[in-house]
């Protein structure tokens, strides 16, 4: 039987995907560790030790990317968790319009990021944009959403949440719907309020959904590029640069070694944050 | 193994499509060859070439309206003169995006036969020795003015020929508003500021900022180079050798301070970070904004979009602190280069020679009015250029010009435009900006392998 | 009384959702139908003389029908990538779930790394250039497949766990080899998760901006996202055309959304929560 087993589930099945994965993903990933220590123009390289990394940490315009990337990932993923959960609770209740609302909130996740970025940067124009025109009707002078260095990153993060909250919502809906009815019935017998229902049943029992949303959006946030590049290109100045946009700029400048070092750094940041986070949340789930 | 045959159709189909594309390209050439050898009459019109093989060469230029028009004009005139050579135009985005495409195409061994690209530091960053054909000893180089050759040279060899007229970096201004307010063209920076304050009082935007297109933010710093070299003649050399820095050279730091002053005194439009270059030109033409630090290459765009406003506009050099040394910072035009791996070097040379001839400049001037003198000996500026171009000519006639820093030093940092956005919008002060730029250029200098860094 | 009040709240909620999620799309739509001058005002007014069709035609004709070529490229990219992705990942998911051995943890690890590690850009260019596929559609298809691989394999693997082994055993007793078993019996059973992957990946790949930006530079092989990005500078004074372009490239995902709305939501949930 063992021979039949091996023949039936032959590792040959892994070969086509394996070759592509090895060639296009693993080879570049592994070689990136080497090239990050070089000055490189794709054909010639010169070993320069930690020079690229030193430059990344010393140059203020590069270092700012770390802080921004962290802020961006934390802000977007936590907003997606909170809003996704609240909307999830709301849209699994007895609302008549829940299917309509689910659809309208989910639709932006399917639309091109570039398109959304362009539309929102026009709506956020400080003098002619829709948002500030609307604010001025009620007598508020709106800020320069994408020009104010203190605000720009958060403005883009807001658009990211606007576009991405649909995914979080869908995951929460599934999580909440999978909670067995018995829990609610037991609570009703104990005379619990809606508030109790939320805190002592929905929040703890939809933890697997929370886990998925956090991991998905946190890693996504750390790697984010499209939206920031469309809306601000990292500007004004360097105030909204993320690690990914810095990598792109170094690549544009022809600093291939430096860009690759940026890739390695991004990898380390993601690994250093996402892996422990994942482990921590897995342990929590077991505790439950 | 059955799995392998299962997966094949998709891949096979793809490779068939790819192959078909490659074959059809070759097929086209074969057909042409046969046709041209069959009709000897064509070889008579072709100048000097013995066999009338029809050859197609490729040309790459950036996709700005002006660049495409000029390239097409060159191509039409050239193909008429050399019927056996066809030129195919490819366009690429402008700015850093385009730099990147040129760099990767060179690095991956796939460039057009001829490419139009910047001269000066950007050209130096392309490793000319590896990627370009040496044009030092071509006959047409005798037509080219020497001051240009140094901007397309690397280790003493010349690699390019100019594709357009010189440009200047300075200040466009609205003459009508100047006259209405009784203002004079400023000869010192203090006068410029005083003028601007008056314009502000009159309720207009004194200085247009269009930082949504970040490259436009560099102009105040770059166009100050005439004043820098007037005070520190050796700056370019010392800067290249890492003996002088931006922050450590008062004259250079002053350029950043000027930018900061425009911000500190509130002389630029409030929404400058959301304003684009095109909107900037519109503000200037319509008189909503009165002065615009910009390259003179904006002239054709204004001429095209606001033809009835062009005569209201003038141009002056960015003034220094001393009225007695007032002069214009000049930008060299881009150049035509030939790709080293080109299969048609001879034809490519014929094309470049045509571009770098008096005839070539005449062709170019029909679609794009020159914004300064041509760099080809014997070429003249047509009389019907806008008066703002004529404003620049005295500087050239009186020898009051200096090339911008990027044409005398290969060191130009990639992030200057972000840094000047920061200084011009008050995120950083001048000193910090100059220091940040010193760090930025270090990267470029090291990548170029310059000594002293 | 309570019913009326809750109805009022719900109406308020719907209005708010429409405001937040509907207005941006309404904004895109109305501006796609204006002339350049009206569009430059960036407001929500309905165009005084709608010219949707004219704008769309102008956009399509720009730069020698660049957008149409881009649509062809993007469609080809999406279709080929998905066919390869589905076939190869289903095969891999099938064996990875059924055959547990000493190598299994290694495969698990590789899949997980694929989910977490950001792709190394320039070295990928270097590899693609080395095998002559840089700046080719085929190269980009391989990139999309390699990057979509971990997620899709994971979905297939999870779903395989719900397919009873008895089915395999019966087929093997009937004399089915692995290949016949997979293509005749398993692959059809995987249909629900295949549908999910088709929808999710086609949206991801069609909307992908970063990978074409890096791996398909130059004007020949443009994709719709790159075209839109480049038209930003082309149409800087003609927002109406920019929005017409946005409208055009939003149509394919919108159609997909209309057809698969329910299924996307169901499929998403099946895959992601279990992970």
UniProtKB/TrEMBL annotation, chain A:
Residues 66-277 form the ABC transmembrane type-1 domain. The keyword Chaperone does not apply. It is found in: Cell membrane. GO terms for cellular component: plasma membrane. Keywords: Cell membrane, Membrane, Transmembrane, Transmembrane helix, Transport. It is a multi-pass membrane protein. The keyword Membrane applies. The chain crosses the membrane at residues 12-35, 70-92, 104-124, 151-177, 255-280. PANTHER family: ABC TRANSPORTER PERMEASE PROTEIN, INNER MEMBRANE ABC TRANSPORTER PERMEASE PROTEIN YCJO. Belongs to the binding-protein-dependent transport system permease family. This is Sugar ABC transporter permease.
């Amino acid at each position: 039987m063992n021979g039949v087993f091996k023949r039936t589930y032959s590792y040959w099945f892994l070969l086509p995907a394996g070759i592509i994965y090895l060639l296009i993903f693993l080879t570049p990933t592994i070689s990136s560790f080497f090239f990050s220590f070089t000055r490189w123009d794709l054909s010639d390289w010169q070993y320069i030790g930690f020079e690229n990394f030193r430059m990344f940490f010393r140059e203020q315009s590069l270092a700012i990317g770390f802080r921004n990337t962290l802020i961006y990932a934390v802000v977007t993923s936590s907003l997606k968790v909170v809003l996704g959960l609240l909307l999830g609770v709301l849209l699994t209740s007895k609302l008549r319009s829940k299917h309509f609302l689910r659809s309208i909130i989910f639709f932006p996740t399917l639309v091109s990021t570039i398109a959304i970025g362009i539309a929102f940067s026009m709506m956020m124009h400080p003098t002619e944009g829709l948002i500030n025109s609307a604010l001025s009707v009620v007598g508020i002078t709106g800020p320069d959403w994408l020009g104010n260095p203190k605000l720009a990153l958060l403005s883009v993060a807001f658009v990211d949440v606007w576009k991405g909250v649909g995914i979080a919502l869908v995951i929460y809906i599934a999580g909440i719907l999978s909670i067995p009815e018995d829990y609610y019935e037991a609570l009703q017998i104990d005379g619990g309020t809606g508030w109790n229902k939320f805190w002592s049943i929905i929040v703890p029992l939809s933890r697997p959904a929370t886990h998925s949303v956090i991991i998905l959006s946190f890693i996504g946030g750390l790697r984010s590029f499209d939206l920031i590049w469309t809306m601000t290109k990292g500007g004004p100045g360097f105030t909204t640069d993320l690690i990914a946009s810095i990598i792109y700029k170094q690549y544009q400048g022809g600093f291939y070694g430096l860009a690759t070092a940026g890739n390695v750094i991004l990898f380390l940041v993601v690994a250093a944050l996402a892996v422990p986070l994942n482990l921590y949340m897995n342990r929590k789930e077991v505790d439950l | 193994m059955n799995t392998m045959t299962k997966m094949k159709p998709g891949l096979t189909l793809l490779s068939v499509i790819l192959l078909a594309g490659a074959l059809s390209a070759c097929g086209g050439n074969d057909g042409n060859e046969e046709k041209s050898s069959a009709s000897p009459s064509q070889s008579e019109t072709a100048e000097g070439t013995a066999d009338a093989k029809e050859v197609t060469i490729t040309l790459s230029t950036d996709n700005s309206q002006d660049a495409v028009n000029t390239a097409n004009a060159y191509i039409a005139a050239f193909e008429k003169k050399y019927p056996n050579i066809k030129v195919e135009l490819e366009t690429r985005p402008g700015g850093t995006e385009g730099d990147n495409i040129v760099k990767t195409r060179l690095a991956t061994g796939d460039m057009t036969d001829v490419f139009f690209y910047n001269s000066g530091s950007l050209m130096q960053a392309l490793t000319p020795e590896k990627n370009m054909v040496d044009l030092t000893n071509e006959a047409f180089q005798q037509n080219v003015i020497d001051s240009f050759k140094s901007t397309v040279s690397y280790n003493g060899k010349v690699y390019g020929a100019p594709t357009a007229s010189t440009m200047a970096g300075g200040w466009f201004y609205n003459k009508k508003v100047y006259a209405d307010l009784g203002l004079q063209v400023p000869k010192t920076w203090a006068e410029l500021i005083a003028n601007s304050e008056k314009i502000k009082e009159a309720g207009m935007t004194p200085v247009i900022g269009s930082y949504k297109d970040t490259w436009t933010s560099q102009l105040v710093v770059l166009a100050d180079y005439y004043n820098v070299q007037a005070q520190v003649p050796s700056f370019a050399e010392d800067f290249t050798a890492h003996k002088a820095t931006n922050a450590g050279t008062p004259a250079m730091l002053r350029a950043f301070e000027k930018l900061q002053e425009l911000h500190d005194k509130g002389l630029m439009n409030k929404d400058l970070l959301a304003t684009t270059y095109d909107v900037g030109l519109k503000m200037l033409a319509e008189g909503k904004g009165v002065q615009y630090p910009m390259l003179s290459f904006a002239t054709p765009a204004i001429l095209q979009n606001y033809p009835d406003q062009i005569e209201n506009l003038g141009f002056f050099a960015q003034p220094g602190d001393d009225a007695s040394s007032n002069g214009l910072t000049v930008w060299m035009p881009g150049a035509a280069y030939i790709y080293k791996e080109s299969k048609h070097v001879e034809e490519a040379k014929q094309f470049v020679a045509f571009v770098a001839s008096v005839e070539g400049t005449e062709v170019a001037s029909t679609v794009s009015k020159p914004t300064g003198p041509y760099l080809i000996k014997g070429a003249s500026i047509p009389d019907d250029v806008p008066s703002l171009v004529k404003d620049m000519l005295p500087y050239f006639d009186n020898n009051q010009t200096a090339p911008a820093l990027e044409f005398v030093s290969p060191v130009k940092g990639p992030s200057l435009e972000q840094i000047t956005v920061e200084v011009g919008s008050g995120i950083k002060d001048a000193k910090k900006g100059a220091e940040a730029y010193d760090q930025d250029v270090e990267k470029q200098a090291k990548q170029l392998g310059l000594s002293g860094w | 009384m309570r019913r009326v009040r809750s109805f009022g709240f719900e109406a308020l909620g719907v209005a708010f959702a429409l405001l937040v999620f509907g207005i941006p799309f309404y904004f895109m739509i109305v501006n796609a139908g204006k002339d350049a001058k009206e569009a430059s005002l960036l407001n929500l007014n309905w165009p005084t003389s709608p010219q949707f069709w004219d704008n769309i035609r102008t956009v399509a004709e720009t730069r020698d029908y660049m957008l149409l070529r881009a649509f062809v490229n993007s469609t080809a990219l999406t279709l080929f990538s998905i066919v390869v992705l589905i076939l190869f990942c289903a095969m891999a998911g099938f064996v990875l779930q059924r055959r547990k051995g000493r190598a299994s943890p290694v495969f698990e690890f590789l899949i997980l790394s694929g989910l977490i590690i950001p792709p190394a850009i320039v070295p990928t260019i270097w590899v693609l250039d080395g095998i002559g596929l840089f700046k080719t559609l085929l190269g980009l298809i391989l990139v999309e497949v390699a990057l979509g691989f971990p997620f899709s394999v994971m979905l297939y693997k999870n779903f395989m766990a719900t397919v009873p082994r008895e089915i395999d055993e019966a087929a093997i007793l009937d004399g089915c080899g692995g290949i016949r078993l997979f293509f005749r019996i398993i692959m059809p059973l995987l249909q629900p998760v295949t549908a999910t992957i088709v929808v999710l990946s086609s949206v991801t790949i069609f909307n992908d901006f970063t990978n074409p930006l890096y791996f398909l530079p130059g004007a020949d092989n443009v994709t719709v996202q790159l075209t839109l990005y480049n038209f930003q500078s082309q149409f800087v004074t003609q927002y109406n055309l920019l929005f017409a372009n946005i409208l055009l490239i939003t149509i394919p995902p919108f159609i997909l959304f209309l057809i698969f709305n329910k299924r996307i939501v169901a499929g998403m949930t099946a895959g992601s929560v279990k992970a």
